[in-house]
Design brief:
By secondary structure, this protein is an alpha+beta fold. 24% of the residues lie in helices and 26% in strands. Strands 3-7-1-14-11-12-13 form a 7-stranded mixed β-sheet. Helix 7 packs parallel to helix 8 and helix 14 packs across helix 15. It is globular and about 80 Å long. The two termini are 34 Å apart. InterPro entries: Ald_Oxase/Xan_DH_a/b, Ald_Oxase/Xan_DH_a/b_sf, Ald_Oxase/xanthine_DH-like, AldOxase/xan_DH_MoCoBD1, AldOxase/xan_DH_MoCoBD2, AldOxase/xan_DH_Mopterin-bd_sf. This is Molybdopterin-dependent oxidoreductase. Pfam families: Ald_Xan_dh_C, MoCoBD_1, MoCoBD_2.
């Protein structure tokens, strides 16, 4: 990967050392970095309590079966077992789900996917708990699973709500429009797992008032609290969610199906109960990226300008709806990509099957269609005999253009500038055919490949994502800023998942109040809600709330001084802990102005509203958009089908750079996740059964798989409706990089490459090809 170089300055003898830089635009390190590096950071799996019991969950070995009976007698009689619970022990609402509540806490009559929870056990030792869970006897009538999403339309209903979750027909322009050139394609996208660094874990502690506290790595604590309270039959005030250290999150990865049994067991036993999932349980229990089937037809004129796009998009939601409706809206809305398309006719469906559940994973919906529409652009370029990058430049979207949903792009959309930046960036040197450079072969060191079989390919992709929620989602966050004794404290329920919110909050307060020491309080549901940690929400909404609260404190601080000197607060500025007036008459420090007082303010941030898509897929559904261009360079062994990503050159519009080092890290992480989706990551199933649910059967990219990532341009064109003008940065590289890698493999092999991840046989070139 590319690395930014840091320079250190040493103070000269007799001079005071320079104060550390702070505020927006500075690479302020995370306050948690040292603890995480030293291994002292408290994660959910590290929690402990006096009188602790251990939980284990019994999961279905079948993807589809009718439950005839559940016998917990043997499990209850085992020494050390304190409680065994099933669906009969759920006192409140028995359904959960982030987008739609249609998933039972415990299966009662039917199991609908491999790994669905049936019972849970609490015991005095983790081994005892697992043995007791295995001792629960379940009698099944095995049913034929529906695993092909195309068959779900005709199959018997798998759920009381039916098999169809949502259908979106998008109609834009003239249905009879046609182009001189037509290309078609069928594409399949695999099931990518979030693969969290640490598997799900948590602790439930009963309260004296009959309630319960949940210590979990939640990314949306208030939603989790409300769901838990409804499940437990309690008022929300009697359930508290305390967020523990989140071990990295590439989605809303903390599934409520892991959390709810904990509280039920704690309430039943009156003891603290802890659950630490195995990696297999993690794979089986949480949601994954939607496997997707896409059919496309692109029309273009003789000059290569797009005339019409027709597409059918089918999302496999698995057993339950979760956030499939939102994913489908993104897929349909962005089905044409960041291109001007005067006529678009898209049909999108999300359906239930007996496959593993799907839900929110970074770039959901947008990643799948990006791989398809960019493959179509490559086909058009080949048929027209033009350079693929030049073809894209003829069609790119810009500010003021209209999306197929009818929404006008009002935010900065420098797509042409991004593409030109990666197109003009120098290509990497070709590998040398010498023994010391054997590691350059796609097979790696000691690989079986021969240098003569290696071909190099260069491919391009343009991607786009929406920020914040969509289709009328009420986005709001609340924050409080307190200042006392020269120390500022931020209280906001925005969860730090690795996206850098706590660092950003510190920078905002430092910039606004000139106070260097800023602490961000830990998150729990006693604070006002801030919403989920996804789609760049907390940079925009929670960061905006922190900024407004800090500005209110700033006004409280400066008003007495302004009144004393007969000027407005706008004529005073705070820099490096000093308050000065525009004319130099006033000069004092922040601590002197505070004079021992405590100042505080609470503020909210709520972006402008959006609206649901109508019956024709039309509407202003999105608050803001972000764009990315990537040029991929790959080496392909055309005999073995192995692929090595040599370099990815990336250009992205970021609005404003708030923390350069943090931004670079987020982009590089997003690109690497996209490479996994392109080449290795696919949670495979056989008739609904998950095969190899572990990190040996599921191949994540490692440091050896990471290519050189060249961030060649970051366009800082501020979005005027966003606080600070900044845009979300991590999702759009995930969306774009798989399509770019596939494009490069197509260029190297001449093969169509219509499936992700790319299978070796798709990159093999025979003598006749």
């Amino acid at each position: 990967m590319s690395n930014d170089t840091a320079t250190a300055t040493t103070a000269q003898p007799g001079t005071a050392p320079e104060p550390p830089p702070h505020g927006l635009g500075v690479s302020l390190p995370s306050a948690e970095a040292r603890a995480k590096t030293e291994g002292t950071f408290p994660y959910a799996a590290d929690l402990w309590a006096e009188g602790l019991l251990w939980a284990a969950v019994l999961r279905s070995p079948h993807p589809h079966a009718r439950i005839l009976s559940v016998d917990t007698t043997h499990a209850r009689e085992m020494p050390g077992v304190q409680a065994v619970i099933t669906h009969e022990d759920v006192p409140g609402t028995a359904l959960l789900g982030r987008g739609r509540a249609d998933r039972p806490v415990f299966a009662s009559d039917v199991v609908r996917h491999h790994g669905e929870a049936i019972a849970a056990v609490a015991a005095d030792h983790p081994d005892t708990a697992r043995m007791a869970a295995a001792a629960v006897i379940v009698e099944y009538e095995i049913l034929d699973p529906v695993t092909d999403p195309e068959q779900a339309f005709e199959a018997e209903p798998l759920h009381p709500d039916g098999n169809l979750i949502r259908h979106i027909p998008l109609r834009h322009g003239d249905p009879d429009a046609a182009g001189d050139i037509v290309v078609e394609g069928l594409y399949r996208i695999g099931r990518q797992d979030p693969a969290p660094i640490g598997a799900e874990a948590g602790l439930a502690v009963p309260r004296p008032d009959g309630g319960v506290e949940l210590y979990v790595a939640s990314t949306d604590p208030h939603t989790d609290r409300d769901t838990a309270a409804a499940c437990y039959g309690l008022d929300p005030e009697r359930v508290k969610v305390v967020v523990t250290g989140v071990p990295g999150a590439t989605a809303d990865r903390e599934d409520q199906g892991f959390q709810l049994p904990l509280g039920l067991l704690a309430l039943k036993t009156g003891c603290p109960v802890k659950l630490t999932a195995t990696r297999e349980e993690s794979f089986l229990g949480h949601v994954h990226r939607h496997p997707t089937l896409l059919r496309y037809r692109h029309h273009a004129d003789a000059e290569g300008r797009l005339v019409k796009v027709e597409a059918q998009i089918l999302l496999d939601a698995g057993a339950y709806a979760d956030t499939s409706s939102e994913a489908l809206a993104a897929a349909v809305s962005f089905a044409c990509g960041p291109y001007v398309v005067p006529n678009a006719f898209i049909e999108g469906w999300a359906v239930r099957t007996n496959n593993p559940p799907s839900g929110h994973v970074r770039g959901e919906g947008a990643m799948q269609v990006c791989a398809a529409y960019e493959a179509q652009m490559d086909k058009l370029a080949k048929k027209l005999g033009v350079d693929p990058a030049d073809l894209r430049l003829r069609n790119v979207l810009a500010t003021g253009d209209v999306l197929p949903t009818g929404q006008t792009v009002t935010c900065p959309a420098p797509v042409a500038e991004l593409l030109q930046a990666v197109q003009e960036y120098p290509l990497p040197a070709l590998p040398k055919d010498t023994p010391e450079d054997e590691w350059l072969l796609p097979g790696g060191p000691e690989g079986a490949g021969e240098p003569g079989a290696v071909r190099r390919g260069v491919g391009y992709a343009l991607g786009m994502v929406h920020m914040l929620g969509a289709e009328g989602t009420d986005e709001v966050s609340t924050a409080t800023v307190k200042v006392h004794d020269g120390i500022a404290t931020v209280l906001c329920a925005a969860v730090e998942t690795g996206q850098g919110f706590t660092t950003l909050a510190r920078q905002i307060v430092q910039e606004t109040l000139g106070i260097e020491e800023v602490h961000v309080a830990s998150v729990d549901t006693d604070q006002p809600p801030a919403g989920p940690s996804c789609r760049g929400r907390h940079t925009w909404v929670s960061g905006g709330a922190v900024e407004r609260a800090a500005k209110m404190v700033r006004t409280q601080l400066l008003q007495p001084l302004a009144h004393k000197f007969g000027m407005s607060t706008e004529l005073l500025q705070i820099t490096d802990g000093k308050i000065t007036s525009y004319d130099g008459v006033l000069s004092t420090t922040v601590s002197e102005a505070m004079d021992g007082k405590e100042l505080w303010a609470t503020a909210q941030c709520r972006p402008h509203p959006t609206e649901p898509l109508d019956g024709a897929g039309q509407g202003d559904a999105f608050v803001g958009l972000a764009f990315c261009a990537i040029r991929a360079v790959v080496d392909v062994d055309i005999e073995l089908g192995s692929v090595r990503v040599v370099e990815l050159a990336l250009a992205q519009d970021v609005g404003r750079i708030l923390n350069p080092a943090q931004l670079t890290a987020r982009i590089e992480a997003g690109v690497t996740q996209g490479i996994g989706a392109a080449l290795t990551e696919n949670l495979r199933t056989a008739r609904g059964l998950v095969r190899h649910p572990d990190l040996t059967g599921y191949s994540l990219p490692t440091a050896l798989d990471a290519p050189d990532i060249r961030i060649v341009k970051l366009v800082e064109e501020r979005d005027v409706v966003a606080p600070f003008g900044a845009k979300a940065v991590s999702a759009v590289p995930v969306v774009t990089s798989p399509a770019a890698v596939a494009s490069a493999v197509r260029a190297a092999t001449g093969r169509p490459v219509n499936r992700l991840p790319i299978r070796p046989q798709a990159a093999v070139v025979t003598a006749t090809q």
